[in-house]
Structure formats: C-alpha cells, structure tokens
C-alpha cells in the first residue's frame, strides 16, 4: 500500500510542477500547509478522498491522473533481464527498472 502513496505523491509533484506551482502555491489553493504538501508528495501523508479532488483541481487535472495505475507484479522480460546483467552498477539497474515501470506520459 505504501507504493500507492509514493506513486500518488510522484504524480502530484509532476503535475504541480507542470502547472508551475510551488508547494506553497498548492498548499494555499487546497487549504493545507506546505509541510503537508511535501509529505504527500513523498508518500508519507495519506490523502482523504475529498482531498484527491481538491488537489487534482488545483493542479488542473482529472482526479484519475493522480491515481497510480494498477500494477501487476510480473517477472521482467528476458531482454530486460539481459540488459540489467550488462549494466555496470546498481544505480543503472535501478534506473532501468524505473524506466520500465514508468507510467506513460509521466517521466521519472
């Protein structure tokens, strides 16, 4: 479940930045403190359902855009496993895993 809130926070940060809003700007629009926005973006603060709609409206997207796509845990393809094995370091391997898992249209 924690992955859900991490992905939600990542999406919120992406759309907030795309809307050229600071964390303070967003906090003011939805009646939260900047620290709450920071915690939401980092997946540390869970968001009530009504706040989903307020946050989405504030950054100019539909609420569904902030919700993580359902991810089915599946083994990595053989080609990806081979590519991972050829990468030198753990950072590169982690980068490739994130790239493969990134929702369409939202860079990581």
How would you sum up this structure, described in words?
With 108 residues, the protein is mostly helical. It folds into two domains: 2-66, lambda repressor-like DNA-binding domains (434 Repressor (Amino-terminal Domain)), CATH 1.10.260; 72-103. The protein has helices at 2-18, 23-30, 34-41, 49-59, 63-66, 78-86, 90-101. Helix 2 (23-30) packs across helix 3. It is elongated and about 50 Å long.
Quick overview:
With 108 residues, this protein is an all-alpha fold. The chain is built from seven helices and no strands. The model has no long low-confidence stretch (mean pLDDT 81).
Separation of termini? 20 Å
DSSP E strands, number: 0
Relative helix content: 55-70%
CATH class of the largest domain equals Mainly Alpha
Question: What is the overall shape?
Answer: elongated
Number of separate helices: 7
Structural class designation: mainly alpha
Radius of gyration: 16 Å
The major sheet is characterized as: none
CATH fold descriptor of the largest domain: 434 Repressor (Amino-terminal Domain)
């Amino acid at each position: 479940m924690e992955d859900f809130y991490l992905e939600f926070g990542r999406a919120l940060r992406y759309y907030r930045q795309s809307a050229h809003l600071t964390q303070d700007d967003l906090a003011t629009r939805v009646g939260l403190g900047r620290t709450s926005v920071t915690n939401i973006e980092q997946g540390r603060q869970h968001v009530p359902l009504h706040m989903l709609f307020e946050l989405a409206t504030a950054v100019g997207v539909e609420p569904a855009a902030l919700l993580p796509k359902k991810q089915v845990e599946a083994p990595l393809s053989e080609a990806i496993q081979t590519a991972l094995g050829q990468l030198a370091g753990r950072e590169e391997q982690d980068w490739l895993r994130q790239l493969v898992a990134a929702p369409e249209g939202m860079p990581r």
